[in-house]
Amino acid sequence: MSADERYMWRCLELARKGKGAVAPNPMVGAVLVCDAQVVGEGFHAFWGGPHAEVEAVRSVRDPECLSRATLYVSLEPCCHFGKTPPCTELILQHRIPRVVVACTDPNPQVGGKGVQRLREQGCDVTLGVLEKEAREQNRRFFTFQKKKRPYILLKWAQTLDGFMDIARKSPEDTTSYWITNGALKLRTHTWRAEEAAIWVGANTLLHDNPRLNVRYAAGRQPLRIAFFDTSRADIRRFHLADATQPALVFHFGEDREEKNLTFCHIPYFNPRPDGLLPAEALENMLGVLHRRGVVSVMVEGGRRLLDSLLAAGLWDEARVLEGNIRFGSGLPAPVISQTPVREEAVEDNRVFYYRNRP
Predict the structure, then answer these.
(1) What does the buried/exposed string (b/e) look like for 53-67 if buried means 16 or more CB atoms within 10 Å of the residue's CB?
(2) Is 23 exposed, middle or buried (0-12, 13-18, 19+ CB in 10 A)?
(3) How open is the CA angle 20-22-25, to the nearest 5 degrees?
């Protein structure tokens, strides 16, 4: 491993500290090295806060060494005014002679302009050190910028015999049957804290009335999202409308705000012949979320919404939790034709991880 790679690994390690707190911004870490010694470190800790480069420079005890230092940063320094001033100007102000960058920023406001600005001013810029790893770390941000939609993570639990719910004797039976163990329940709440939003379909809202919050892990509460025809029931009777955290409801009515609830109009559509939501309707909703700055969404059901996203190819990652029980009959879980990229045992349960690779 080269020295450049070693210090860039440290940048990625620092960047992870901002996970779940910086969206819609990317996670970024920075390291300053002078005379083969680390003299400063920093990371982007929260949205709207100082960038990693700023924090690294602030942490340096002897500012005079900056004119001999190398700055390592896991994403291209910004060159525009946003919530904070451009980091390129900070680098030039302190006459840092060399900058090592993992990958360019996909944001059109940057998109190589930061590297260009530094090089034009005589800075020695090395680009592409651990690029693959850096892009993987910020895959949500890259998807949001390039595909103009949130990064979509599908998640569901299923039994050993492939059911996500037991056969109900009547529509009024709303008994909850846990499929997975307590350890995976905690894991799910950790995942919720890492995503910008949680999304469920109309039937899940009606039958399960989920809280869609983070109760068993540390982290910020996600935006709660549902697609729901508000003529079917009073939305105020669901946990979604309990005012404890923001919520967004897609419906066929007009746009309006109501306490913590945002109602977003979508054009009326007819389901596909197989009952799934058409791709155009899904893309419409995802476009709304993109315009609202929602970088990532974890979709927790129900079956129709999950199947609709799978059929449309509108997903990036899936995590399938398999409990150590059988139902014998019931609601079949969705099926992914691709092979898991990884599987993990969690006590007597398993998690299968998928990536959508068209």
Answers:
(1) bbbbbeebeeeebbe
(2) buried
(3) 125
Compute how many other C-beta atoms are within 10 angstroms of the C-beta atom of residue 13: 14
Q: What is the pTM of this model?
A: 0.93
Angle between helices 303-312 and 279-291 (to 10 degrees): 90
What CATH number should be reported for the domain whose range is 3-138? 3.40.140.10
- Phi and psi, residue 99, nearest 5°: -130, 130
- List the domain boundaries for the chain: 3-138, 148-355
Amino acid at 189: H
Here the tokens at position 25 are: 């911004």
Contacts of 331 (CB under 8 A, 6+ apart): 163, 164, 165, 166, 167, 303
CA 162 to each of CA 159, 304, 324, 336: distance values in angstroms, whole numbers, following the listed order: 5, 16, 11, 12
* 39-78 tens-digit pLDDT: 999 999 998 899 999 999 999 999 999 999 999 999 999 9
The residue behind tokens 């595909």 is 147
AA identity, residue 97: P
Is 41 tagged catalytic? no
**Catalytic residue from among 5, 13, 41, 53:** 53
Residue 171 has pLDDT above 70, yes or no: no
Averaged over 353-357, what is the pLDDT?
Answer: 95
For the beta sheet containing 98-101, the strands, ordered from the edge strand earlier in sequence to the opposite edge, are 37-43, 29-34, 70-73, 98-101, 124-127
Q: Which two tokens stand for residue 251?
A: 């419906």
User: Can you list the positions of beta strands (E) in 46-130?
Assistant: 70-73, 98-101, 124-127
Using CA atoms, how far residue 248 sits from 21, 156, 203, 243, in Å, is: 20, 21, 16, 12
Q: What percent of the chain has pLDDT over 70?
A: 98
What pLDDT shows up at residue 83? 67
Q: Which fold has domain 148-355?
A: Dihydrofolate Reductase, subunit A (3.40.430)
Would the CATH topology of 3-138 be identical to that of 148-355? no
